[in-house]
Amino acid sequence: MSTTTKRNTPEYELVDNGIETIRYLEHGYPSDLIRWHAHDDYELHFIVATSGKVFVGDYIGNYSPGQLILTGPRLPHNWICQHNQDPVQVRDMVIRFDHESFSNGMKIIPELAEVLPMLLRAKSGIEFFDLELDDLKKTFESVRDSSGLQRVIKALPLLKRLAQSQNYRLLSTVQIDLKSNEALQRKINTVVDYVSQNYNQDISLSNAANLINMSDSHFSRFFRKATGNRFIEFVNRVRISRACNLLTETDQQIANICFQVGFNNVANFNRRFHELKGVTPRDFRSQSNKRLEGQTLTAH
């Protein structure tokens, strides 16, 4: 296998660069690295271009430039761009490190234990807020442009700052430990892409199972173990996430949004929305409008 292939594939990069405490990678769009996957590293993802859907464990939400997320070992994740976006050279800047480096380092430098609570939370995925984006980008660039001890010195202050931050949220409601091989991860990625692109259509478990040549019963068990969701729950999460966008960004009637995102029954849409968001679609829109009005007043 060529050196280039190893460098571009997370699973191989971990093996090749294992002697480094802090590793760095970046990729643009499109890229072979944009896929549902998991590995043994922690990854701090800084999104600098494009927008779309982010998947972390059983969490599904929106992403846009400026998002910062820390994922833990074996926690599956992916960022899927919205359709018709122009190619970019750099979409995702990533700082990577493994647990062993920090656990061993703590024996020599006890102060490293300050980041441990954050690393434990990273099993669920962590999204950080209210960071100075220009400074953040400069930090990632300095990590990228350095190596060895200098790279560690550049990265540690950022990790300390994030470990002390109180402005974050945990993403996945279940801590998934995906140990499947690359072939099985590709199967999940095929299904995730299929749902993301066809959420507004009639999607059945059988159709999804056929995509990856599995029986319905085998696929049902396989998908839940890999994603933390039953298949229909996953489809509903994608649909509700899209509905949230439409409720916030348009003034379409709620019934129209219901059908546009793939539900065929308004009562069922309202019920599923409340299960996932804790409020009705109408209240969600009202709260979103109030937040936007507050931001506008603050800006003036």
TrEMBL record:
PROSITE patterns: HTH_ARAC_FAMILY_2. It comes from the Bacteria. This is AraC family transcriptional regulator. InterPro entries: AraC-bd, Homeodomain-like_sf, HTH-like, HTH_AraC, RmlC-like_jellyroll. Residues 189-287 form the HTH araC/xylS-type domain. SUPFAM superfamilies: Homeodomain-like, Regulatory protein AraC. Pfam families: AraC_binding (PF02311), HTH_18 (PF12833). Keywords: DNA-binding, Transcription, Transcription regulation. It comes from Marinomonas arenicola.
